[in-house]
Design brief:
The complex is a heterodimer of chains A (340) and B (326). Chain A is 34% helix and 19% strand. With 340 residues, chain A is of the alpha/beta class. A 7-stranded mixed sheet of chain A has the order 3-2-4-5-7-6-12, sandwiched between helices. Chain B has one domain: Thiamin diphosphate (ThDP)-binding fold, Pyr/PP domains (Rossmann fold, 3-Layer(aba) Sandwich), CATH 3.40.50.970. The radius of gyration of chain B is 19 Å and the shape is globular. Chain B starts with 7 loop residues before the first helix and ends in a 19-residue tail after the last helix. The chains are: A alpha/beta (340), B alpha/beta (326).
Chain lengths: 340, 326
């Protein structure tokens, strides 16, 4: 048992998988440079000392590096491909959306594509092109699993599952949750560290977790929003409202059962997301609940999301953009005004 | 080398592969225009020497990636007419069980990654195939086939730079048929050749007569040997001409009359036929027999494909993800 941040847990995960399986290798930007950063957020720091030949530092060529990862995956390797900032995935979008996601399907199931992609998300004082939460862009892609770990325990357990899954898996990691240290530390970071067991545990893909139980309302949130939702739930408890907080952990596949069961119990749903409301994850979850759990709803479904604007830079505007604890509290209060 | 220096069987195999591609494409075009075959098609008539010459320089476990115009590469690398025709008809017996069709034709067990129909999209993928060969220390080579249009895609430049920087066992093969769909290459590219783009990445680039199957073979052999021995990539520009439309019913009115006339005289099968007959390497009769054999094989593939079962509609739901194989 050892306390680790998400960055440390992922580093241990990569080290462990590379030791366990010779097919696993890293390909990414600014990795494996002695004296460098270990990727933008220190996840791969120092791994080049043990795995010199399996740490491939890519040119700044996102299309090239994700395409190369796909080619290597089809030939029996297990690439771990990452970008400095999730926003750069758009540069790789042809490879990700047209090739990686669909290669197995187009081959009639004859090919497998064991490939893990990692991308940092979240608004962190970097403005419109280094701070987006990109999950909604990838949700409609058929053929890629999408994970959103909010704690170090889940980051490591889900990462191991991703490497061993045998399919393309995209992991979104939040910059404020990494716990990166030194020059790469983030202002406003939140402690998402966990006690990490010594054994080789995994967290199953597609299984949500109930972070806090409550009878009055269900909050569904991932990554940073999950942590803010837990804070909101504590404040709400002081006024006698008991909110249940569900962390889906995996967006594709999505654990509808756990969410439905909770909403069936509380009758109220609030979905919190860091990206703009239009076309967001919340829309998808709300539609699922409207289709399959409407009879248990005592109140309209509420979404707490960013406004439909790019991520702004100036701190007052960024704070306005990212859903706050207060906005979550208000939304839960609102739904709790119904049906009582 | 002169034609007479090659073994006769080798020369006749080259001829057979080119005729197989031509006859396959002509039969497919007919079936398509008849309305029997679904979908769309991008065909390879006139470019047969490119796939044939390059693939003749490869080993069975070498791997190629191909484009929206993949039939020639697939046949030259060893896919059967049966699995291809069935795929074109969307049957369960096709090489991709009817989930790929013309534009995603391939079979990795025969060294063809299912075709990537986004222009330039296969170039990084082939580079990754070569990266895996190098990391696993396997003496295998990757080939990325692309058209002239692909060389203006960012993916091409990213990938060739990677291949060169990492000294990967790969050959980048541009089939320059002078048109990107209907756009003349000179209208969208300001270098005299495409081969000279190799200089930007520090690798050799060579322009070859892509309708001369032996010239293509020799250039490919050299490039493949260089790749296999750790020398890194080569960029080959094969000058050829598409003597059919870009796709479907395209009448190719953008190709000037005179240019088309010359292209037909310069098409690779007729040229190679003259070489074989002039060198008394084959008789008219031998060549006719090859064509007849090929036609019979293709006809059998059509019959088999039309008799093969169509997929059930709900088969569409399968093959998105692999079962967990941990």
């Amino acid at each position: 048992m050892k306390r680790m941040t998400i960055a440390e847990a992922l580093r241990e995960g990569i080290r462990g998988e590379m030791r366990r399986d010779k097919r696993v290798f890293c390909i990414g930007e600014d990795i494996a440079i002695p004296g460098g950063w270990g990727g933008a957020f220190t996840v791969t720091l120092g791994l080049e000392q043990e795995f010199k030949e399996r740490m491939i530092n890519s040119p700044i060529s996102e299309s090239g590096l994700f395409g190369a990862a796909l080619g290597a995956a089809m030939m029996g390797m297990i690439p771990l491909a990452d970008v400095q900032y999730g926003d750069f995935l758009f540069c790789a979008m042809d490879q990700v959306a047209n090739q990686i996601a669909k290669m197995r399907y187009m081959s009639g199931g004859r090919l497998t594509v064991p490939l893990v992609m990692r991308a940092p998300v979240g608004a962190t004082g970097r403005g419109a092109q280094h701070g987006q939460s990109l999950e909604p862009f990838f949700l409609p892609l058929q053929g890629i699993k999408i994970l959103v770990p909010a704690t170090a325990y889940d980051a490591l357990g889900l990462f191991r599952s991703a490497v061993r899954d045998g399919n393309p898996v995209l992991i979104f990691e939040h910059k404020l949750l990494y716990g990166s240290k030194g020059a790469r530390a983030e202002t406003g970071a939140i402690d998402a560290s966990s006690e990490i067991p010594d054994e080789d545990y995994t967290v199953p893909i597609g299984k949500a977790v109930v972070r806090r139980t409550g009878k009055d309302a269900t909050i569904i949130a991932t990554l940073l929003m999950m942590h803010r939702s837990l804070q909101a739930a504590e404040l709400l408890a002081q006024e006698g409202i008991e909110a249940e907080v569900i962390d889906p952990r995996s967006l594709v596949p999505f654990d509808e059962e756990t969410v439905r069961a909770s909403v069936g119990k509380t009758g109220r749903a609030v979905i919190v997301e860091e990206s703009p409301k239009r076309g967001g994850i919340g829309a998808e979850i709300a539609a699922m609940l409207a289709e399959s759990a409407a009879e248990s709803l005592l109140a309209p479904i509420k979404r707490v999301a960013a406004p439909n604007i790019p991520v702004p830079f100036a701190p007052p505007m960024e704070n306005f953009y990212v859903p706050s604890v207060e906005r979550i509290v208000t939304a839960v209060r609102d739904v709790c005004a119904y049906g009582t | 080398m002169k034609p007479n220096d090659y073994p006769k069987k080798f020369l006749l195999d080259l001829y057979r592969t080119m005729v197989l591609i031509r006859q396959f494409e002509e039969r497919v075009k007919f079936l398509f225009l008849e309305g029997v075959m679904p979908g769309t098609i991008h065909q390879y008539q006139g470019e047969e020497a490119c796939a044939t010459g390059v693939c003749a320089a490869l080993e069975p476990d070498d791997v190629v990636t191909t484009t929206h115009r993949p039939h020639g590469h697939c046949l030259a690398k060893g896919l059967s007419t049966g699995e291809m025709m069935a795929e074109l008809f969307g049957r369960t017996t096709g090489c991709c069980k009817g989930k790929g069709g013309s534009m995603h034709m391939g079979n990795l067990s025969k060294g063809v990654v299912p075709a990537i129909a986004i222009v330039g999209g296969n170039v990084p993928v082939a580079t990754g195939v070569a990266l895996a060969f190098k990391m696993k220390r396997e003496p295998r080579v990757a080939v990325s086939f692309m058209g002239d249009g692909a060389t203006n895609e960012g993916a091409f430049h990213e990938a060739v730079n990677m291949g060169s920087t990492w000294k990967l066992p790969i050959v980048y093969v541009i089939e320059n048929n002078l048109y990107g769909a209907s756009t003349p290459v000179g209208m969208v590219t300001n270098t005299a050749t495409l081969a000279e783009r190799a200089a930007a990445y520090g690798i050799p680039g060579e322009r070859i007569d892509g309708n001369d199957v032996l010239a293509v073979y020799e250039a490919a052999k050299k490039a493949v040997a260089r790749a296999r021995s750790g020398g890194g990539p080569t960029l080959l520009e094969l000058i050829t001409y598409r003597i059919t439309g870009h796709s479907r019913r395209d009448p190719a009115l953008y190709q000037p009359e005179e240019e088309r006339k010359q292209a037909k005289e310069n098409e690779p099968i007729g040229r190679f036929r003259k070489v074989l007959l002039a060198g008394t390497l084959a008789t008219e009769e031998e060549l006719e027999t090859i064509t007849a054999d090929v036609n019979r094989e293709i006809e059998e593939s059509v019959m088999a494909a039309m008799a093969a079962p169509e997929p059930a509609p709900e088969d569409a739901l399968e093959d998105v993800f692999a079962e967990n194989n941990s």
